[in-house]
Amino acid sequence: MSSSNTKTSNRKNHAESVVFYCSNERRIAIPQYAIMRFAKHKGGGAALEAHHERKKEKYASNPDIDPNRKSRNFHIIQPERTYWREVDNRIKAAGCKTRKDSIRFVDTLITASPEFFKGKKRVEVQAFFKTAVDFLAQRIGRDNIFAATVHMDEKTPHLHLCFTPITQDGRLSAKEIIGNRTRLTKWQDDFFAHMVKKFPDLERGESASKTGRRHIPTRVLKESISLSKQAEKIQEVLDSINPINAKKKKEELAPMLHKFIPQAESYFTHMKRYKQEFERQERENAALEKEIADGKLGLSERLQMYNLQRDYEQLKRVYSAVPEEERKKAARAVFRPQRQARDYHERG
Q: Which of 37, 103, 114, 221 has the smallest C-beta neighbourhood within 10 Å, fewest atoms?
């Protein structure tokens, strides 16, 4: 398939392709999905709160956030206290027994395919997310929800809804409320059935339990893009080093490495769990063009995986090009203050 017959977005927007044209000029619209995902948290959530409630001035790790659109964000349920206090108060009020490894709250991401929101008025977007909140309130209990924030300042509108997983008999149990993979599939089925009543254009995506695919979180994709930009700048400096400017370039490189190395090491650790997806991507690339022509599902995910794998390989090359001693120095320089800051925030 030639590039002239395929309409895609640029690298930065690779996950938001809307329409593809096949070689026979047949127009194929990408399906519109309702999306719901859970993320469990054991800590107080200070960093998460800063992100959800937009308490920071800059978001270097997330290039999608547009500070000029911050005023367009809105709450469906606004927290009255810090996330830590909201969670702690509910757990104490219910008399829940907790352990050090207890899941204290769950962050739920609600959104839809980018094309679903195109052309929709603000009131329509609000109706979509309010309908989603109603669904969750019915399933987990309205009193367990302490925050529901809609972000309109990124590429695709999305809702972050946070709740304490407290059962009706007063136990803290994310396992019972969210369940295993089979239960998660039932969650998705019920969520789709609820949403499609008011939004009939939505479709139910193919379950991961059937496809065998593992979801790559949006934060990992964004982290990959952010680190790739840092890596490009570092590579430029490394390529320009010569015997004459070595000392000056080393000084220029130091602050860049202090930021890049710890983030890259954390990223590589996270990416180990997606090795199987990379291997699957290699096997399926040969069939990609045919699936586009046939209009099958999962195209956006394939594009995401392709770019993620490419960025991952680039990051490994740049990371390996940095002398080991410099990597250790960079890691030591940031580890202690990061740890102190995290401990401070966790104490609330």
A: 37
pLDDT tens-digit readout, 229-256: 888 888 888 888 888 888 888 888 888 8
Q: Residues of 87-109 as b/e, b for ≥16 C-beta within 10 angstroms?
A: bbebbeebebeeeeeebbbbbbb
Q: Strand pairing of 105-112 and 34-41?
A: antiparallel
Which residues, in sequence order, are CB contacts of 300 under 8 Å at separation 6+? 15, 16, 17, 30, 113
Distances (CA, A) of 16 to 20, 43, 129, 132, 155: 12, 33, 20, 22, 9
Comparing C-alpha atoms, which of 261, 230, 269, 264 is closest to residue 332?
A: 261
CATH number, position 72 = 3.30.930.30
Q: What pLDDT was estimated at residue 13? A: 34
Low-confidence ranges of the chain (pLDDT < 70): 1-31, 58-63, 205-222, 270, 273-312, 314, 330-348
Domain closes at, from 157, 178, 204: 204
Do the beta carbons of residue 94 and residue 105 sit within 8 Å? Answer: no
Which pLDDT does position 278 carry in this prediction? 58
Structure-block tokens of residue 119: 């052309």
